[in-house]
Specification:
The chain has 165 residues and is an alpha+beta fold. It contains 2 helices and 4 strands, in the order ααββββ.
Length: 165
């Protein structure tokens, strides 16, 4: 039976340093990849949160004109122009048209956002609901090259419903 030498770290010829350096390089590469992925995820979360805040602000600007109708229970859905509301909502979140692709670069992370669907609902006369369905593509700029990371689809909604209605 042949006995293997497991004392490679105690080698006097210097080859033990090579193994140590290789292990340190591999660990640092893995950590840098994880750092980039988590920073991409954080950037995407910030963009989604910004769109959510813009939708909430838009619903807030709509409320003064429809709140009396919600409070009294009279139907306001017939007198609202849905196309104008959807167009204004699209402009409020930063898109000029439904086909537009919004690109945001935050450091090394590039996020392309597209509107898949934008819907408005009157919640049966008891409130307002505005929903946006987004498709986001995340890529990173590494060594002057754009590297694709992933695509995600998200639903973001903002709603106001009168309690007790």
């Amino acid at each position: 039976m042949k006995k293997t030498n497991l004392n490679i770290w105690k080698d006097r010829n210097g080859s033990a340093y090579i193994y140590g350096v290789v292990i340190i390089l591999i660990c640092s590469m893995l950590l840098s990849c994880l750092f980039l992925l988590f920073s991409a995820r954080t950037g995407l979360r910030e963009i989604r949160q910004g769109i959510k805040e813009e939708l909430d602000a838009f619903v807030g600007t709509m409320l003064p004109e429809i709140y009396p109708d919600i409070k009294t229970g009279s139907g306001f859905a017939q007198r609202l122009d849905r196309e104008k509301i959807l167009s204004d909502a699209m402009h409020s979140i930063g898109f000029a048209s439904p086909d537009e692709v919004r690109r945001e670069t935050r450091g090394m992370i590039c996020v392309e956002t597209r509107i898949e669907d934008l819907s408005f609902d009157d919640e049966n006369g008891s409130g307002v609901s505005l929903s946006v369905y987004l498709s986001c593509t995340v890529s990173m700029l590494i060594f002057s090259r754009q590297i694709y990371v992933g695509t995600g689809q998200y639903a973001i909604s903002s709603r106001y419903i009168l309690k007790g209605a």
